[in-house]
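Morning - alpha-D-galactopyranose inputs below, output right after.
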Amino acid sequence: MICNRISLLCSSFMAIAIGVAVSIAVAQPTAPLAAKPPMGWNSWNHFAEKVDDADVRATADALVASGMRDAGYIYVNIDDTWEGQRDAAGNIHANSKFPDMKALGDYVHSKGLKFGIYSSPGPKTCAGYEGSYGHEEQDANTYAAWGVDFLKYDLCGLRDVMGMRNPPFDRIKAAAMMKDAYAKMHQALVKTGRPIVYSICQYGMDSVWEWGAQVGGNLWRTTGDISDSFRSMALIGFSQAGLEKYAGPGHWNDPDMLEIGNGGMSADEYRTQMSLWAILAAPLLAGNDLSKMDETTKSILMNEEVVAVDQDAMGVQGFRLGPPQVWVRQLSGGAKALAIFNYVTDDVPQPVTVAFKDLGFVGPVHGKDLWTHKDLGVLRDSFTATPPKGGVVMLRLWQ
Ligand code: GLA
């Protein structure tokens, strides 16, 4: 676990163990996995069970052609429904939608992208396909042979094994079984020797943020599934207040994937998702059809200043300063991101004033509006914004 998550530390341990190679091992630390919140795309929100090889290739092409890859979106993650049958030796094979996973992984890699896949610690996945229960090492080895760089591991079928569907059940025993199952796959991934980002998905059960990193998670879902509506997105996003202390480089809270571009929300509401996820240091996994993006969708997903907030090197998750939905995130170099949301969706938007002393600034500050891209010059004492219905005003502030 330590070797996977903190490679420098791992190098040092190994160096001490092998004595003579100390200087070589210490001199070549590798980057820790998920030092910044992972960015990329996942098939589920748009394609769901219909995703196939051609969709994934078209997505890889679109990531490059649209500029998304260069904006940081590098993971191409296939969600549930790729799984086929196991052979007599127990090896998992993809179903007929994915004729050659190794070739698909090679294609994704040839575009300068990374390849992600999905499984469950249970016998069955959420969509009823084959899970990894009892085949953890074997599956991890198969993924490594296919060139997989990211695994989303989704509880689903394990709930039956845990006895959750036949109450009353032993909560403590069930929680221990779940943690063991996540740790088991983590160990199997580490054993492959391939760096594979490990995404825990169990909808926030048993306060996963308190133990997700201990079982090797680089990210963990904190809630149930998002859908393409303002209500769902806002309920999930704004409920993250208080989880900030659990996130940091290598281990992130995951409020689920982006819905931007899927059509169920207004542009202002999608700007709210992008801004809030950036303040939350959340993984940015686009969930739309990238081969059919309009200019508004592109301008939201590829707002490089908002992406820069999400990817800030300090890796400190933002917090809610106060109602009505004023959020702040500490950034490198003493800067801060400020987002003022209109969550209550007043038909007549109300002005909200934030005093700079409440953000920890003493004296005048410089401001830039990250959605209008206007430099606001030097600001004194406070800032007042009137975000549109369902929308946001987001600034970068520095002294
Ligand atoms: C669960 C997960 C979703 C998706 C589906 C696939 O509902 O939370 O993100 O992976 O399963 O079946």
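Note: The first strand starts at residue 39 and ends at 42.

O.
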